[in-house]
From TrEMBL:
The keyword rRNA-binding does not apply. InterPro entries: Kelch-typ_b-propeller (IPR015915). It comes from the Eukaryota. Keywords: Kelch repeat, Repeat. This is Galactose oxidase.
Amino acid sequence: MSIFSPDTKIGFIKLFNSSSSSLFNSSKKVYDAVQQNSYLIMNIKYNSCPPRLAAHSTALINKKLYFIGGDDSITDDHNSFFYLDLNQYFDVQSLPYVVLNVTPVGILLASACVGGANNDTIFVFGGTNSVENPSQITDKLINTYNTASKEWSTPQIEGEPIRRRNIQAVIDAKGKMYIFGGFNSLEDYTTTYFKDMIIFDTITFTYSSGSTIDGPLSMSGYTATLLPNGIIMYIGGLAQNYTIISIKNIIMYDINENSWNYTTAKSPKDIEDRSYHSAVLTNDCIICYGGVERFYATVSPSLIVLNTTSFEWSFKEDIGTNAPPRLYLHSANLVENYMIIAFGNETSSITSSRIYILDIRNYTWISYYEASLPSPPPATDQPKPLLSVGAIIGITIEEYDNDRELKQEEFLLKYNETLDNSNTNIIYSKENENNETFEKENYRTFGKYRTYIIVIDFIKGKIQRYGD
């Protein structure tokens, strides 16, 4: 029996986790609201306990931080794909993750940039690809995800270079990606090291090459940071003989002059060299976090800062309530005043499932993210009410126990895209499972669950709960 009357116009999407999506252990679903008639239609958005990832890629578009691929130590899959919604406040214990379709191939140790004609496409370059079907083509260097159409594609591009991994790409304002070095290990255990500069135009889908004159020998596991003046600064990493490149040796490539240069930074003796660390750019500093030395022991101190004017290194003490462990093969992204560090390896056998946030204004680790408020709309003579009479909000929440028991469950997926003023009834009802708007799907999750729906009537001031 439906919990809503036939004239109730509330749409619910019952989310499932596909068994092939290698996704999350537990979830609490909340919803974005869009007004329709006198009601709010709720679109899927949810909080979730994420996987344990390392060697993933990230891309930031419109305050959505996308996580792509990586090694999921729980499922051993490499095709996770989800984003963290940065348009809202959250704390690190309740993260607004949104699950998307899995990547077309497993992606590991790749690099991602945002580009394209409309600057709305994620370009994932290189890495190692894995597939369930061996006949699937995996030799293509680039996979793309269009955030507008929500579609993955593997474009056919002439003149592609040899696949490589353990690289970091940067992209300029003209939509050109710059990728240096990396290596390629084959099944026969032979390894090819690269010392070329690949330039890929994300608008014309063409390759070109940068200069190698006076360029460095092959390196991997470094960080690459593009400064506003067009200089890419390469920090740390591994040389071809697996020695650590000193963080004092700053390698620079000028994208405007197509030339290489070097400088030596001043550094305290107690800052260790590193690879597989992360870096973000602030106004006049590059903030690096984590990393490992040659034999994969984590380095100290974890948080170091390079002044890009004086070329001096300094380090910061761990201040705050949410300082991360020493990590490597993690990710770092700068969003306004926050450096967001995600996942990564704590040791060779322990992978993190957590997010850590550094407030760069005072170098304090905090346990929450506070989104900037949008500009208020212009004043009008007749202000419109936020909700019309009879408005109702529905929230579906799933809670999971902590025993992490693996179980198979069957759920209904219901979706109706009607957003006009028609009288289409959108009713969540198991009796309607033969309706074509329903689909049955199996999904895998860890943990026992219970589901309930909360309905809030703002006019009558009532809150009702339905479910287990």
